[in-house]
């Protein structure tokens, strides 16, 4: 017998904890001669409570896959779920609400508001949504990312690494079901980048979060539990427990084979 009550978002059937899922997702941009197939029937499951990296050559569809999984972009064909909610078919208003309540985002550009201090930036999405942050969780997040003594600083008074820590805390503040990062360390030097990756790792290990990160960097991918490799809009490989060397080897393999299908 299966239990009648499922945890929110633990995925249907089979009992595996799936935080997000794409089923035969195709995404095409443009029409006719200028049509580009950015994703070609991609199916993938993102495990809950794990750190997944998406890698692949430039133009292979990494950002498009992330945007489709996160409900930031519509699909041409196929279906997408976050937890048990199917995104494909939702109206824009429902999608906005689902993203706001269940998804955290970290981008390459920190996207902080310059007139607000760190804590105001962190709680802004919840303030806009009219939700009260869970203070205990918020304190835990702030101490995890090491911002406790910087909360009254404005972005201009913070280093790039500290600004991205604010962005990480903002993404975590609402206890999202899933966090997406698109090259979150792309604007940081390697030390600040390593710090942010360490915080993402800790948010998985210590806070039970689910993280999906697009990256070009094998060193960044090595922080993940699993790497999914894309080429020409298709998933061509994946790797559990990656190391930077293993990832680099695999990437070289793709390069020497040229187009992989
Ligand atoms: N809005 C758009 N309009 C038209 N084509 C697009 C659009 N967005 C992406 N593409 C095309 O879709 C393909 C996949 O793009 P995507 O940005 O997902 O790749 P990527 O792997 O993230 O690349 P990079 O590593 O260079 O950021 C590319 O050929 C790109 O030119």
UniProtKB/TrEMBL annotation:
It holds the Pfam family ABC_tran. It comes from the Bacteria. Residues 20-257 form the ABC transporter domain. PROSITE patterns: ABC_TRANSPORTER_1, ABC_TRANSPORTER_2. GO terms for molecular function: ATP binding; ATP hydrolysis activity; transmembrane transporter activity. SUPFAM superfamilies: P-loop containing nucleoside triphosphate hydrolases. One of its GO terms (cellular component) is membrane protein complex. Keywords: ATP-binding, Nucleotide-binding, Transport. InterPro entries: AAA+_ATPase, ABC_transporter-like_ATP-bd, ABC_transporter-like_CS, ABC_transpr_LolD-like, MacB-like_ATP-bd, P-loop_NTPase. This is Putative ABC transport system ATP-binding protein. It comes from Streptomyces aidingensis.
